[in-house]
Amino acid sequence: MLAVVDILGQQFKVAENEKHYVPKIEAEPETEITFDSVLLYTDETGTKIGTPFLTDVKVQAKVIEHVKDDKVIVFKKKRRKSYRRLKGHRQNLTRIEVIKIG
């Protein structure tokens, strides 16, 4: 089974027993969450495509942990003008494990 799920504005292709890093979800670790916005669902019988979402398919997942992504460096420079700016950013992520699709 395979599904494409919209999680906080981003689309993820998920299957059962897979782990994914998604944008930070306000949930405690070891809690189960359900995603209702399934865009596509595929199994042995065929493929269902939502317009825009499927109403009869849900994805259940478990929150494993909250982590931070690698640092992204933003460096700006204008030559011969003594202008240099250095900024860093680390995105907050949530690691989830997909338990059940259906």
Tag the structure with descriptive keywords:
102 residues, elongated, 0% helix, four-stranded antiparallel β-sheet, mainly beta
What would you note in describing this structure?
The chain is 0% helix and 66% strand. It has one domain. It has strands spanning 2-7, 10-14, 19-23, 32-35, 38-42, 47-54, 59-68, 72-78, 83-89, 92-101. The protein contains no helices and 10 strands. The chain has 102 residues and is an all-beta fold. The strands form 3 sheets. It has a 4-stranded antiparallel β-sheet with strand order 2-1-5-6, with no helix packed on it. A hairpin with a 2-residue loop joins strand 1 (2-7) and strand 2 (10-14). The chain is elongated and about 65 Å long.
Helix fraction bin: under 10%
Largest beta sheet, briefly?
A: 4 strands, antiparallel
Question: What percentage of amino acids are in beta strands?
Answer: over 45%
Rg to the nearest angstrom?
19 Å
Classification by helices and strands:
mainly beta
Query: What is the tally of beta strands?
Result: 10
- Number of helices in the DSSP assignment: 0
SSE pattern, N- to C-terminal: EEEEEEEEEE
Number of domains: 1
